[in-house]
Prior knowledge:
This protein is an alpha+beta fold. The protein has seven helices and 15 strands.
Amino acid sequence: xxxxxxxxxxxIVYYTSPQLEAFRDLAHGFFTRRGGVSQGVYGSLNFRFNSxxxxxxxxxxxxxxxxxxxxxxxxxVRTNQKHTDxxxxxxxxxxxxxxxxxxxxxxxxxxxxxxxxxxxxCQVVMLxxxxxxxxxxxxxxxxxxxxxxxxxxxQKMTAEFGxxxxxxxxxxxxxxxxxxxxxxxxxxETLQKAYQNAxxxxxxxxxxxxxxxxxxxxxxxxxxxxxSPINIDISSICPRCTTSGELWWSHRRxxxxxxxxxxxxxxx
Length: 268
Ligand SMILES: [Zn+2]
């Protein structure tokens, strides 16, 4: 497990996984707030269409991020994420439309498609099978963790494309830390139920609140899927409490009046 690396290009500040960077046929980035055209609370690289930001600005921000990866703005595949365990397999870009009930995971082997997920505390997990050349992106907040969407994505990569966990590399972007993820008992109860009470070591109580270490759960999940620990990079950054808070929107820190970050992965 290693830390993600900070990059600045064309004014855009973004993070990359050293492990994924090593593949010349792959492009990816976990974008920050910096490098876009939006103003005010959406300043500046806002990817949130469902907001008071001008749609043209949000489109331009998407285009800039995709261009950095070497993609056209019309080759972006978006999730309409709703904390589900729905995972869409994209075999032809032209046929893709997110289902109404939401999709939180995308898998493809199509070159030049920019798989995109959004985050502002939630985890975004990228997966890449170096032999089959299959890429995936997953949005996983605590509900996604309870829904086991990361495990299900690895299983779907295997079932649909013949991927092997031994060939899969993973990167987990900046997401909320265990100190900042303060919740009521419903969250640990839901997780314990989903994981047959195997979550105790990731949950603790402080005063009358509960805390869950989602990053560690995801790390363990990836290893339990058969992915090698040395093929996993995880950002230690927490958008809520990081000292470089000007780079990040955090749902917990900013509430609803904010933009959202994007992460993109593309097979070249
Ligand atoms: Zn934090």
